[in-house]
Write the structure tokens for this entry.
Amino acid sequence: MDERFEVIILIGRPAAGKSEVIDFLKHTDPAQRARRFRIGEFTELDDFPFVWETFEIDDLLEGLGRPRAFTTKDYYFLDDQVWNLFIERLNLEFRKKLAREPDFTRRRTVIVEFSRGGATGFAEAFAHLAEEIVRRAGIVYINVSYEESARKNRRRFDPARADSILYHSLPDAKMERYYRVNDWDALSGGRKSGRIGIRGVEVPFAVLDNEPEVTDDGARLGPALEATLAALWREMAAAPRPHAPPPTR
């Protein structure tokens, strides 16, 4: 019986600590990672490279004398439907992995990472997630306030590495426009663990509180992440998905 997560949807506000969690897992001994966190070898699918790609494509189009397709000159999106395009890109990458290797998630955990804001941002993103992801997934939400998110977003700014997953940053005006509010509390009911209905599937979730910050210190992050993933595993054991045997407690 599989003792590892197949898919973890890792979400939160910008700079909440998602990339730091992944970096911590990368630098954890594989045997310890499997034992403590139920994650062995893993693959990341992050929508930030797709976001950055739209900026680059638009700059290239403008350089060719063509209209920008996705963004204004100062990189605001022309149409908010582009957020759903990014989710479809994640779906496409996931499906390609399954097409090449149908038991891919039996061999490697897939961590799907994204941020969303707005009154229905996460709900809309979830509605566009592929069923192949949803039926295998548990959600980890990294919980910080908007104020903490904005503070950490400013802290990580590095103009020389603006396209980096770890060091990208948003101007305050964009943070305010796109991320001042989000709908996580409405979806979760303020609970620390439980299940959320997505496309007819009850998807387990657990919350990692990161305020005060724990993702900046591996000695504190390890136990906090271990407890969060243990809570997620218990939820998954209580509500097994039909495509696979239930995980053991």
Observations:
- Residues 244-249 have pLDDT under 50 and may be disordered.
- Residues 6 and 114 are 17 Å apart (CA to CA).
- The radius of gyration is 18 Å.
